[in-house]
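Lecture 7 notes: from sequence to structure.
We start with the chain below.
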Amino acid sequence: MWRRETSTVVRRAAAHPGRAVAPFVILAESQVPSVPTEWAPHSHHLHELVWVRGGTLTSRVEARVFTVSEGYGLWMPAGVVHGGRTTAGVRFHDAFFAPDRTPFTFEGPTAIAMTPVLESLLAHLARTDLEAAARARAESVVFDVLQPSERQFALQLPGDSRIDAIAEALLDDPADCRSLDEWARTLGISDRTIARAFRQATGLSFAQWRQMLRAHRALTLLSEGFDVQTVSEVLGYAQPSTFIAAFRRAMGTTPGAFSVAADESPGGVRNPVSGVQNS
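Predicted structure tokens for the same chain:
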């Protein structure tokens, strides 16, 4: 995924949540890692829904990278192998769902709209003193309001040996502005080969894929409180206006509107731990 922060702690996630889910259908938990935290690839025998406050979570599933930002969650079906990473100080939430008692399914990882109602219900279900009848009522409403997001924030990695070096370089430094011609000379292949490979592997042109990668990275930087000017410079844009237009094409909103929405979300606070040096 993105460049690992220097003090990152890598954890091996358990195959199931800390407390047994039975007799519950949904079990919700939360934590605030004090250091940058990465979860090694793992899977659960339960469905999992994760969301964050005060930052972002990136998750790798096979050849796709998902960016989970304020207002969104990521549904991970039972049995799907995935890894994840958060910066320090992010409030990390997850909820586990018993597959045999969940009345719907998603075929693969799916971005979920974390509405205030859904978040409040899951926070309610995190209580340990709920009576069975009250828990059952809340769980039934969760099933009614849990819906996929209109936008699925997934970046398809190429997985093509001819162009993997380009993807790796851009993941390490999204501001890398080398053109197709420059990459062709570096790799010793034609620019047409690179262009065709990106289109075949990702469904996007090289320029579109780099723009989408930068938009994903921008979500993290904006969530950490960096202003549009700084994010534009970090991502290699000559002018903030160019960055704003590119972000809007990729994400359907402006960087400023995204930042305002993050600030106004329930419990929305800027990450007080992550620093500029870690971005």
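Points to note: The chain has a mean pLDDT of 86. The radius of gyration is 20 Å.
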